[in-house]
Amino acid sequence: MDNLLSMEHLTTDEIYELIQRASDIKKGDLKPRNYEDKFVANLFFENSTRTKSSFLVAEQKLGLKLIDFETTTSSVQKGESLYDTCKTLEQVGADVLVIRHSQTTYYDELETLNIPIINGGDGSGQHPTQSLLDLMTIYEEYNDFKGLNILICGDIKNSRVARSNYQSLTALGANVMFSSPEAWKDESLRAPYVDIDTVIDQVDIVMLLRVQHERHETGEIASFESKNYHEAFGLTKERYDRLHDNAIVMHPAPVNRGVEIDDCLVEASKSRIFKQMENGMYLRMAVIDYILQTKGVQKNEITN
Ligand code: CP
Fold it and tell me: Per UniProt, where does L-aspartate bind (predicted)?
């Protein structure tokens, strides 16, 4: 695996391999090598709390040296192109780039670079490390994906998480369903649209999506007052109480509390929202390690 750009590029074997490696790192059964001779740059052209901070921790646990880069103080402010920024970082010695950008498939213009790119989210396209950490969290719970009933609710059209997870979960044999306002449906994804109240007591996982205000046309949200959205498509206390005993609640976060999910449910017993964040750090360690190994660095030491 030379890059991680889209879940569509991963085989199911590679998905299982990355989940296994992340789980082994988490349990202490896999000790990745130290990459103190390698440099990484994190290029976040869109805001982030979880993805950026968990990559930073993962990179430092792996011993990587960080190249200080902020869009606000770089020559991006002078009009430098994405390609020129990335090519410059390659030339000064970066061994791997982590990039989040608002342009869907921004990575197409970077295909001549000779260093790996890990996609931290591209517009409404893909968010592969989020999908992998979600899969890791589901696997910890169910030890399988086949036959799981998974309801993904909300802003499907604008969500890179919905797209990435639809593709990976379907490939792994799960039954994915969507629930969404008409305006936020994405008919290019082949999952059935269902009424949340009809299926809520049958699903194994309810995955809520953040309402992506920043990707909406001006006024698009006007017909979806927060309270109305919560009652029509959100996880209310009533819906939570109808979930079966082993069902879990997921959300990539950040959460609009009281919109996608009732404030009091964010840390309820069935919620795995903060577990997803914890797993994200281990999963990102596994991804970086796997990619740098593919690039010819020596193999890990298995500790048991
Ligand atoms: N889930 C996620 O990508 O969160 P951030 O935008 O905070 O990185």
Answer: 78, 160, 210
